[in-house]
Structures are given as C-alpha cells and as structure tokens.
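Side project, low priority. Logging it here so it doesn't get lost.
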Amino acid sequence: MTATETQQSSDQDTAAEDAATDTAPPGQRSRLRVEPTAGLQWSQALELPHAAADATRPAEIRRAYIHRAPETHVLALYRDVCDAEEPRPDVPAPWWLRALARGDIESRTAAFRVEDRIAQLLLPRPGWEFVPWAADGESGYWEFMPSERGPSGYTVPTTVLNTDRHTGWIDVLPAHSGATPEPIAIAGLAGLRSRLGEIEAIR
C-alpha cells in the first residue's frame, strides 16, 4: 500500500468513527466525549502537593481540589466519573466522599470533624503516628508503632483508619504478620476512646 493509500485509509477510518459518534444516541455521544475528560479531571482533583507527604495529621493533607472546591462541585464531578449515583469501587475516592455520595454522612465538614477528633485523641498518646500516604484520594491512617516487632513479633502495626462501610466511620486492623485480618468496626470516637487500652495491648 502506498503512503497516499495509507493516508486515505486512515482518513476514512477517522471519518467512520466521527460518523458513529454523531449517529449514536445523545446520551451515548455524551459519554463517548465526556468520560475521558472526566477521568482526567478526577485524577487532577485528587492530586496532592509533595509537601503533603510530611503531614502529621489529616488536616495537613487537605490541599487537593476535592478538599477545597465547593462540595456540590466535587460531588457532581465524582458522580460524573462514576457515571452513576452510587460510588464505584474502581474509582478512587476518600471514604467521606463515598459516604456523601450515598447520603450516609451529612457533609464534607462533618467528615473532616471525624478525622480531626481522631487526631486530637491519638496525637498526645505515645506510640501513635499518622501516615499520610494511602490509596489515591484517601485520608491517611494511624499506626501504633509499639505493636510492631513487639513480643509477638508482628511485622505490621495496629492501624486505625476511617471507613465508609459503617456509620461509626472507624476501623481497626490489629497488628499482624502475613494475611491482613478482618477490620474491627469501632462505634465512633467514643468507641475508639473506650477501647484504646485494649487496642494498644496488642503487641
């Protein structure tokens, strides 16, 4: 095939794709054009500055678009990229946004309050460290360092993290080696406070 014939074939393929898009139903045309853009916008909305890696509490990593933009805009963009009213497991998002999308929590501000109260409880206690890195968009988690390499030889420390799987919003992963254990659901901040002695005793 000559270069001219190759170019003509390429032009014909492009024209066919454009025709297919133009003749698709309006909703499908919208998805064909919007989904890649929404995905890119969502990646940028989750992006944090490098300085966030030094955060010592959740409030210090709230520097992305999802933290600063109007809540209605963030929720609309999230639903757009999910292409649904309900959260999708393959779309990265913080726990509070998944809960907000389902109507399980009243606002982003309320979710930040949950995170900040955990920080107020754990920061003054010896041995607890905040880990700002988590899955894309997540809020970080807390590790109890004395539970690692203690008498039981655990290689992974006890971890406290936020979750949207129940409305206590807090899970604990006990210190362990090997397979990750099932998370323990904690009944909110009061539940965490009342069980801290038990949690810190796992070593």
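Brief comment: The chain has one domain: 15-200.
Revisit when time allows.
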